[in-house]
Design goal:
The structure holds two protein chains of two kinds. By secondary structure, chain A is of the alpha/beta class. Chain A contains eleven helices and 18 strands. Classes of the chains: A alpha/beta, B mainly alpha. Chains A and B meet through helix 2, helix 8 and helix 9 of A and helix 6 of B. Chain B: This is Gluconate 2-dehydrogenase subunit 3.
Chain lengths: 531, 183
């Protein structure tokens, strides 16, 4: 079989680095506007027909093959902070990016999220507010075919319904709703980037129950949809071509080329009028730092020194237990009820909390069977004992930005192309720990109201990241304190934009992808206007 | 509790063989298609190997399962055919299990009585082994045989329903069941 053409595009208007949701949406918009677009993706194009095998690898113990090929020399990293950061646990390099793995939860951030400094005296305000993003949020919901309902009393104002109806609540949601009502906690539906109805692009969800890390049916949105659309609009998407560095002109005001390497080891320069970095919250700052030059010894677009700094994630908080009744878990792999009642902060004492009511608490029968040391009737008795009455609540908890949490280069180690690997320096501050404790307190109250025997708690010591990499090329109006402006263009280089959660100034506690999509659409508009 | 051909096909969908896209049930005709996998040396699952698997299933499956032999055959044959590499691992693990039986009991695994079959698994430490496709004998038997058969059963709607879950992970059972309360 002949190798695909991985030579550069001549006369490209736009070069996008990264084929995840941010890059794919920017590419799609600009290609449909008639621009010559090329997308350079470090990872491969995965065969959709292999998704069921990936699902088996996920469901069965014993086979340690990474579901989406992450790990190894290409993806080497150092975790150098107080807290271990398992960087490769949920990110994906490949066409579609981490949406191949994600859960698919898509909420708008709240009005307060954009002005926490003004309202609370914490961190910094964004250079845009909710009203600026509101039309882009609506367009992003359309682009991601979001299934949702307008029943959330805590959500920011919206102008029209979601594109698809929300998934109805689960049976266990009804148990939680009763307990929450007793406690004065309002519950509501969850916006999902998952087809509740069939579309031309994909079937309705068929309930495989393995959304994270793989949806075999394609009902869960992933960015291959926008990649396909971009290609139909004339864009070229080239896989397995990791970009090594960006080059700039003599004046230092414009990027001239993205230098990339093919699987055969050939190095090429992709020139373009505009460049868009959309490689995620770790690889985007890393690439800027790797693009150091005589003129920019601290890396490209880093006049502020903020590139790589202010790394944030959402923290998981959870409580689980068992009831003395059936709870009907594990039918689907997504959630259908949440509470955003504790999202907005009253003061600066805590961050945002987003409460989730899980539909997949406890093990499935096959999980128990494959790990059991009994067989036959004894095993069935064990399964009947182990499955069926679990309940659990999760939460995403906000972490405010701190300069010392950062992505930098570990110059003592190199990847498969000889480039220094990223080092993740990450720690939790007291306010974040307090917020996790507050989330646990609410969760414990709900489970106790339900009558559950609480069996586990994930609190400040056991917590881990939600793998939402944010903040490392923050937006702002001040070139001395931020990397990109309100149009996502870098302050330092006139034709370089950044799309993705690395531009977030603060992270709130909402899953970030809808905001990533909204900002990508905003960036695309600005680039289109310049071309 | 009677397992159906649909259960075998459902289990195949969960393990990525047999081809199930969307929510449509796979057609039986697919079983008769020749493999499209390019494999110069496809594994063969003969009657003896199948007998060993059925004998093993008799140990692993609960007594409520009535027709394990038909289920195992419907589940395993397309799996070996469509995933030759996995199939070779299965065939090799069957050989290993039979070798242990012959060395210890002087007979193939399928010829042993029920108690001896279970004792042999315990002797090999398959019951406590961590599944590992590249591991020692006990780990490979656990991975390729025991867990394959257990997954086949308990990832099927009928098998998982024994514990009250009619739409287990890996099975495209739609989005109605999660909304229903217990019966």
């Amino acid at each position: 079989m002949s190798q695909p053409d991985r030579t550069p595009t001549e006369n490209a208007d736009v070069c996008v680095v990264g084929a995840g949701p941010a890059g794919a949406i920017v590419a799609d918009r600009l290609a449909s506007a008639g621009h010559e677009v090329i997308v350079l993706e470090a990872g491969p194009r995965f065969d959709p027909d292999e998704r069921e095998e990936r699902m088996e690898t996920h469901l069965r113990p014993g086979d340690d093959t990474p579901i989406w090929g992450m790990g190894g020399p290409r993806d080497a990293y150092t975790s150098g902070g107080e807290r271990l950061y398992p960087l490769n646990a949920a990110r994906v390099k490949g066409v579609g990016g981490s949406t191949l793995h994600w859960q698919g939860m898509v909420m708008r951030m709240h009005e307060q999220d954009f002005r926490v400094d003004s309202e609370l005296g914490v961190a910094e305000d964004w250079p845009v507010d909710y009203d600026d993003l509101r039309p882009y949020y609506a367009a992003a919901e359309e682009a991601l075919a979001v299934a949702g309902a307008s029943d959330n009393p805590f959500a920011p104002p919206r102008e029209e319904p979601h594109p698809m109806p929300a998934f109805p609540p689960s049976y266990s949601d009804s148990l939680f709703a009763e307990a929450c009502e007793e406690l004065g906690i309002a519950t509501h539906s969850v916006p999902n980037a998952r087809n509740s109805e069939p579309t031309d692009e994909a079937s309705a969800c068929v309930g495989y129950g393995t959304c994270r890390p793989v949806c075999p049916s394609g009902a869960k949105y992933d960015a291959t949809r926008h990649v396909d659309s971009a290609q139909e609009g004339g864009a070229r998407v080239v896989d397995e071509v990791p970009v090594q560095r960006l080059e700039h002109d003599d004046s230092g005001e414009k990027v001239t080329a993205a230098v990339y390497v093919t699987p055969e080891g050939k190095e090429y320069r992709q020139e373009a009028d505009e460049f868009v970095l959309a490689a995620g919250g770790v690889e985007t700052p890393r690439l800027l730092l790797l693009s150091e030059s005589e003129q920019y010894p601290d890396g490209l677009a880093n006049g502020s020194g903020a590139v790589g700094r202010y790394f944030m994630d959402h923290l998981f908080a959870g409580v689980g237990g068992r009831l003395d009744e059936r709870t009907r878990q594990k039918h689907v792999g997504f959630n259908t009820t949440e509470s955003h009642q504790f999202y907005d902060r009253e003061d600066d004492s805590r961050g945002a909390i987003k409460l989730e009511f899980l539909n997949y608490a406890g093990p499935a029968p096959a999980d128990i069977a494959m790990g059991a040391d009994s067989f036959g009737d004894d095993l069935l008795a064990e399964i009947r004992e182990g499955y069926g009455n679990h309940v659990a609540m999760g939460a995403l908890v906000e972490q405010f930005p701190r300069a010392e949490n950062r992505i930098t280069l570990d110059r003592s180690r190199t990847d498969d192309h000889g480039n220094p690997v990223p080092e993740v320096i990450w720690s939790l501050d007291d306010r974040t720990r307090r917020t996790i404790e507050r989330a646990n307190e609410i969760q414990r109250a709900v489970l106790e109201e339900l009558g559950a025997d609480i069996e586990w708690v994930v609190g400040p010591d056991a917590t881990g990241p939600a793998y939402h990499h944010m903040g490392t090329t923050r937006m702002g109006t001040d070139p001395d304190a931020s990397v990109v402006d309100a149009d996502l263009r870098t302050h330092d280089l006139a034709n370089l934009s950044i799309a993705g959660s690395s531009v977030f100034v603060t992270g709130g506690a909402m899953n970030p992808t809808l905001t990533i999509a909204a900002l990508a659409l905003k960036a695309a508009d600005a680039i289109d206007a310049r071309l | 509790m009677r397992l159906t051909r649909r259960d075998a096909l459902a289990a195949l969908s969960a393990v990525g063989a047999g081809g199930v896209a969307g929510c449509s049930a796979p057609s039986a005709a697919r079983d008769d298609e020749t493999t499209t996998a390019s494999d110069a040396n496809p594994p063969e699952l003969g009657e003896d190997e199948l007998e060993t698997l059925v004998a093993l299933a008799a140990v692993l499956y609960p007594s409520e399962v009535e027709n394990a032999a038909e289920f195992v055959e419907a589940y395993v044959r397309p799996r070996v055919r469509d995933r030759p590499e996995h199939g070779r691992g299965m065939v090799a693990a069957i050989e290993t299990l039979d070798e242990y039986a012959e060395n210890l009991e002087g007979e193939r695994y399928a010829a042993l009585d029920a108690a001896a079959r279970e004792e042999l698994l315990a002797y090999m430490a398959v019951d406590t082994a961590d599944p590992d496709p590249d591991g020692d004998d006990d780990e490979r038997v656990r991975y390729y045989l025991v867990n394959d058969l257990l997954f086949g059963l308990y990832a099927s709607p009928t098998g998982a329903s024994l514990a009250g879950l009619e739409n287990p992970p890996g099975y495209p059972g739609g989005t109605a069941s999660y909304q229903k309360g217990p019966e």
